[in-house]
Amino acid sequence: MKQMEEIKVWLNAIDHIQVTSSPEAENAMLFFYSQVLGLTEITKPEALQANGGAWYLLGDIQIHVGIEKQINNQVSRRHICFRVHSLEAFAIHLQAHGVENISDRQSLPEYNRFFIRDPGGNRIEIAEFAQHKTDS
Q1: pLDDT per residue over 56-66, tens digit each?
Q2: Of 29, 32, 56, 61, which has the fewest beta carbons less than 10 angstroms from its beta carbon?
């Protein structure tokens, strides 16, 4: 238990998350993260700009879209989870952009959620805390 306490002292935040895309899906990825998800693009360091992709900001966390030639995201379960205030409203927004909603096969009592895949095949969880759900 002592070792876990020491780790807590060192880790205090998530700085960024990287998702990957093939070069062929790069434009669709950048549109998805900037226009469909509405994230704010930030300037990448000059030394990394030639690598393609883009960096975005959500609150204090950066999301980096990296370009890789050899990827197989479509089979991976790794994912980002974005919280929303209205799961239903966001699902409608995504549907308007042709984004397929992948039903959650394992329900959790404290969350309402579903998954999507971005144009690069990265898995994304969209979640609403159950207590945030309002009755109409």
Answers
A1: 999 999 999 99
A2: 61
In terms of Cβ atoms closer than 10 Å to its own Cβ (0-12, 13-18, 19+), residue 91 is: middle
In contact, 122 and 20? CB cutoff 8 Å: yes
* Residues 56 and 65 sit within 8 Å (Cβ to Cβ): yes
Contact 130, 111 (CB under 8 A): yes
Q: Are 39 and 16 contacting, i.e. CB atoms less than 8 angstroms apart?
A: no
By CB atoms closer than 10 A (0-12, 13-18, 19+), residue 132 is middle
- The residue with tokens 């879209």 is 65
pTM of the full structure: 0.77
Spatial neighbors of 82 by CB under 8 A, at least 6 apart, are: 37, 58, 124, 125, 126, 127
In a 3-state reduction of DSSP, which class is residue 70? Answer: coil
